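Dear U.,

For the methods section draft, I wanted the exact inputs and outputs in one place so we can describe them consistently. I've listed the two proteins in the order they'll appear in the manuscript figures. Please don't edit the token lines directly; just add comments below if something needs changing.

First protein:
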Amino acid sequence: MSRRPHSIVVVGAGPRGTGLLERLGANLGELLPDGELDVHLVDPFPPGAGRIWRHAQSPLLAMNSMAADVTMYTDDSVLCAGPIVPGPSLWEWVQRVRAGELPTETADALGPALWAELTAVDATTFPSRQLQSRYLAWVLRDVVATLPPRVRVHLHTGRATGITETGDDQWVTVDGLAAPLRADTVVLASGHLDAVPTPDERALAARACAAGLRYLPPEQTTDTDLSVVRPGETVLVRGLGLAFVDLVVLLFEGRGGRFVPAADDSDRLRYIPSGDEPVLVAGSPRGATYHSKTHYQLRGGRPPLPRHFGPDQIAPLVADGPVDLRTTLWPLMAKEIAWGWYHELVAGHPDRVPLDLDEFAARFDAAAWGTPAMDALLAEVAPDPLDRLDLDALDQPLAGLTAPTLDALQPLVVDRIAEDLRQHVDPRHTPHLGAFVAMLSVYNEVTSLQGDGALTAASRARDVPWWQSFFNSVASGPPGFRVRQILALADAGLVRFLGPGMWVSVSSDSADGAVLRAGSSATPEVVTSTILVDARLPDSSAARSTDPLLAALVRDGAVSEEILRADDGTVLRNTGLIRVRPADGAIVDARGAVHPRRFAVGPHTAVKVAGAFTRPGMNAQSLRYNDAIARAVLQSLPAESAAAA
């Protein structure tokens, strides 16, 4: 008789699955010092890269992070229970490949196009997703290679479709495998999951179809069939985030158009059309593209964080029970973001301020946010209005903007987008980066508060979606060169902005027959078309998921959605997210019971973690959470495996 190996099945072999595997390996010595272990990574898409970062997508699509700002490894900044195991960031990996230090990463292996890109990349380049795909595949191989011989990693190319239990064993069915995989513990580590349309989206699709119109619902833009978009036609687009940016890339450069420097020697571009382009008329609640990524480094050093919105400041506010984020916490959140901004202004641009850092910090610490004392201090320290932080304008950059016609609206929107771009690439405005770094710290704390039950259900239903949207608009914007391209398309009349407060309807009584109509709060003019694209990811919904495994778990009650209720039981909001134990991602079923050997991590869960990879040196929440889950997974394994003949 011998003891069979422990077995862990991880559903999802993209960067989340890889990050979890890395942390499993790091914690083995402490939590599983002996015994054999099989780890099964299951994914229909390429291991390491997964669906979003797979190589099989347009080489025109780029990351919205600089090469130096991407890593999969822990470093000395990461505060976690497991050991720190450093590894190369994307930029460090590029340099090692160039130096010939990685035998598998050669010019022949990468191919001419990727090798040419790799030799041209620097720390501030926004690499292609194909290059990131190669890095992620290498990271997975590196992680596997560092595991001890008693750990075996099995890669299964297929889709997990179901889980059953017999005694202490779980059995994961995978398309293409003759027999299910036995597991002691299962982890759902998929990335963004598709979902069938919402009732509103289905109703819109039905009305559009009945009228002979076209509607493309939310989905990954790279997977959308854009052949239905005809050259020259007007296309209504709802959404101006990253999905919109991908749409622009695929419909313009992807159809043969080119960008060249403008003739006036400015930083602007000029678009040379191919003739196959449509005209996009785009809007959203904010009406503007996400803020551009910053293209500079901090000049004053990283601000000490958290300073005004950390555990010590938060604890007294939540000691008596859950609170509202906007009412109770926002003043400290805003002060923390402002601290990042003004720390960089004072420390990085001392020639522009009348106070030294010590005097400013003492006075800033002593003043409450939003008080006359704080307002007077900020006016004193930033005589130039451009050096002052305006959180309302950062959140709603087009608030109050109006024009009598769509034509009259265009230069107003374009000028604001262009000015935002200028400030995010001009090193005179590095306080933007200071505020961004502080927002990351605030985001981590808010995520912890959600898991700790420190926010009221009403605030989680109302305030947290606002905060997430605000954070995304600042943190998840496109690189500057993409904004320049969008501005060039606007100059060419091929991208037009509807403004904030976009609305859409179907009209069957138009003189031109059935049409889709769109407008906004910025102008009384209405635009008509026969096609609408919802340029965004589907809303999270376990119940509407098209993933067969998750759908089956929901039907069986093994997975439940997070439903926010008022004190009287009234449903405030169904987030659609998988309920998990916040500390370690253990899945909570429909009865409220925590499964001892099933875990979940990713954007489909109620624990919001900012990205599957992260910036180095940031004590990243994603790396800390991967560590917590990996440790819980190892601790969930039976003390001794069952005997096998």
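Second protein (the one for the lower panel):
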Amino acid sequence: MNKHYTIGMAGHIDHGKTTLTKALTGVDTDRLKEEKERQISIELGYAPLKMDDGSLLSIIDVPGHERFIRQMIAGVSGIDLVILVVAADEGVMPQTKEHLEIVKFLQIQKGIIAITKKDKVEEDLLDLVKEEIMDELEGTVFHHSPVIFLDSTKNIGIEDLKETIFGQLEDIQHKQETGDFRLPIDQVFTIKGQGTVVRGTILEGIVQTDDELQILPARVPVKARQLQVHNKMVDKAMAGQRVAVNLPNISAEDITRGDVLVLSQTYETTDTIDVSLKFIKKLQYPIKQRSVLKVHIGTAEVMGKIIFFDQNEYQDSNEDVLCQLRLEQKITVKRGDKFIVRRPTPVETVGGGWVIQAKGSKYKFGENTIRTLQKVKEGSPEERVAQALRKNKLLEPKDILEETGLSKMELDSLLEVGKLIKIKDKYYTCSENVKATSHQVTSYIHAFHEANPLKAGVAKAEILSNFSNSVPKDLVENVLQSLQGDGKLKRHDSLLYDAGFEPHFPPAWKKRMEQVVTRIEGDALTPKPYEQYGREAGLPEKELRDLQHYLIRQKKVYELDEKYLVSVKSIESSVSKLKKKCLKEIELSGVKEELGLSRKYLIPYMELLDALQITKRKDSVRYWL
């Protein structure tokens, strides 16, 4: 069985957790001088347990004293199986109950009850002891768990406990080795000649010697120089294993418990998490809106405020509460991570839950927000990705993983079946966003045509500018390209227009515009100023300018100069007439005589022919081209 599990010893102080751990493994986990002197566990203790197939389990002896509850939570957060240690002569005690609440909130599903110090109770009373303990554990994960009586000092019941452990582990899903490596750090120390070492239980993924890693949230780059699993050098360590990582070139003072060692860029940091939270049944004091709580998540402990969206004070209920925790400092988490919340004063564990969204935003108070969070909570991988993309429109793969809490394997699966659309080989979006953006763009262009029927189309830059505050530029450009590819949009130079659109006179001004065109054509080569035609026809300034650009673009008129427009038909007719008279050379006097033009029109007329490359001037004579 090439699987790796972590087992936690939990229970009240002085109920025999450390002694039992030593009986199972041969290792005394009270390693600190202060622990030896006070005969209580202060820090987390770890020991390897060898299985029948040669695999090693990690056993964590967590502190039982109330004052060391932080260390207890840091240890329990990564475990797969809990051994609840209860002394036969004392039964379930206050810290036993608090440990039970923590185990429940962290959703650890498997447990074993180890009743220690059986020698302290008469043999015929053991069944009564068991009955009393089971009554206390009713409604917990341990209510139907195996029960083992032990005397750790005399090695009684130890083999039965080992067999029970191995049997329980058969049904436990091991941690995800295929994910991106993540190690919440619970111990930092320095070894002379080696430098800084961090320890923790790998939540997912694999780490190998010489891997380039990062410490979050500070995002400090480090390198794994050496790895140890239970004091043995290894080349790699994987999910479920307890590992020590030697990190050169960084001081132990720059790392704290609660930091996370990661391999990829997938993991981000956050100070706002959306959560599903369940409170204990009987709170000493109510939890009010924006109450300050101490949040334990992974190995981190951070202060934060609770934000409700459907109430201003928690009312006793068995229902999970969808809310938000706004933290005083950044942490590294992902969807699905479990956490505990405690009241800082008076000190008590008040609840726990799991992260439904690692990077929350500011939401409005009300049922709409609750419904949105419910969708996020219950959503399938595809629905969660769609939810993230509805909010962000475009995301890189690493951002999708961060927003949704999906594993890389789950995301790859969605990509393989075409559930996401790639944009510019860097981003992804969903079909819903593409469809919505396509509708927005085509509606905008259609509305532009309605408002500006004389214009050939709308400039691409104008479209991008119009959507710059609501839709990412890359998504708009992708949609424009697709619409052109599908034949729904056409392009001329920088202008885009509906495939079926043809510039035309607006119905409200059609007759007046036709009047302007008729008069220009009627005046042939001696037009009046264009402004005068507009005044005579009663056209407003905007419509007159739009008509001018339209007539020029449609090649119905030429600009004789800045004041005059001349019809294309008049130019073509006059050129035909001149060509019959002037076979080679063209002189102003001949043109004037033939066309009857005054100098006012003659010079602009000849310059227009030059500009149209109909003629070419050389000195005072022109030639046909």
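Candidate sentences for the figure legend, describing the second protein: The longest helix spans residues 431-451. Residues 304 and 327 are 4 Å apart (CA to CA).

Thanks,
Y.
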